Amino acid sequence: MGSISQRVRRLNRSTLGKLVVVAVVMFGFGYALVPVYRQICEVLGINVLTQKGDFVAAPVNSQVDKTRSIVVELDGNSQGPWRFRPTQRSITVHPGELVTVTYEVVNKQGRAIKAQAIPSYAPQVVTPHFKKVECFCFQEQTLQANEARQMPVVFFIDPALPREVKNITLSYTFFEIGGAVQTAAAGAGKVQ
Predict the structure, then answer these.
(1) What is the pTM for the complete model shown?
(2) pLDDT per residue as tens digits for the range 92-145
(3) Which DSSP string corresponds to 113-182?
(4) How many CB atoms lie within 10 A of CB 85?
(5) For 22-110, where are the E strands, in sequence order?
(6) Where are the domains of the chain?
(7) Considering only CA atoms, which of 120, 138, 53, 60 is closest in space to residue 96?
(8) Bridge partners of 153?
C-alpha cells in the first residue's frame, strides 16, 4: 500500500511540474505576444493608432502652385461621450501652401477620458499627397472632466497631386481608448 501511495505522489509531483512549466510557457508567450503583434501590425499598416508615417517635416523652399486651388472639406466624427468638430467646414488652399486648421473637442463627462483620432481622406488618391506636419492624431489625447480643447492640424498638399483633384475631404474619427484606461483615469480623478 505504501508503494502505491509513493507512486501516486511521484505521479502528482510530475504532473504538477509539467503544469507549472506549461503555465510559465503560456505566460511568457502571452507576454511576448503584445510586442510581436504591434510589430506585425506596424509592418502591415493595420490597426496602427500612432500614425508614424503621417508625420513629415515642414516643407523647405517648397513651391506654392498659385495656379491651382483645392477645396479641403473638414469633417469630424465621434464615438464617445464628447462633441468633436472642425472649427470651420472648409478651406481653399494652393498645393505646397502650409495651412493650419483647428478641431474642437469637448469632454461632456464628469471624468477624465483618453481618446485617439484616426484620419481618413477622400478621394483615396489624395492619401500619399496629404502631408501633415503637426496633428493631434499623432498621439493619444487625455481630456479632463468637462474640458474643452482646440487642437491644430498643420498640413500641406503635395504639388504632385493629380490636377483633376479639386476637392478633398479630411475626416477624423475620434474615439475613446479601452475600458481599462477609462477606469484608471476615473480612479485617478477620485484620489485627487
Answers:
(1) 0.60
(2) 999 999 999 999 999 888 888 888 898 999 998 999 999 999 998 888 888 898
(3) EEEEEEEEEESGGGGGGEEEEEEGGGS-EEE-TT-EEEEEEEEEE-TTS-TT--EEEEEEEEEE--HHHH
(4) 17
(5) 70-79, 82-86, 90-93, 99-107
(6) 1-48, 52-191
(7) 60
(8) 101, 135
| Contact predicate 167/140, CB 8 Å | no
CATH number belonging to domain 52-191? 2.60.370.10
User: 176: phi > 0 → left, psi -120 to 50 → alpha, else beta; which?
Assistant: beta
Strand partners, 130: 157
What's the length of the chain? Answer: 192
Is there a cis peptide before residue 123, judged by omega within 30 degrees of 0? yes
How far is CA 19 from each of CA 8, 26, 63, rounded to the nearest angstrom?
Answer: 16, 10, 67
Burial of 74 (0-12, 13-18, 19+ CB in 10 A): buried
Distance (Å, rounded) from C-alpha 29 to C-alpha 141? 31
- φ, ψ for residue 172 (rounded to 5)? -120, 140
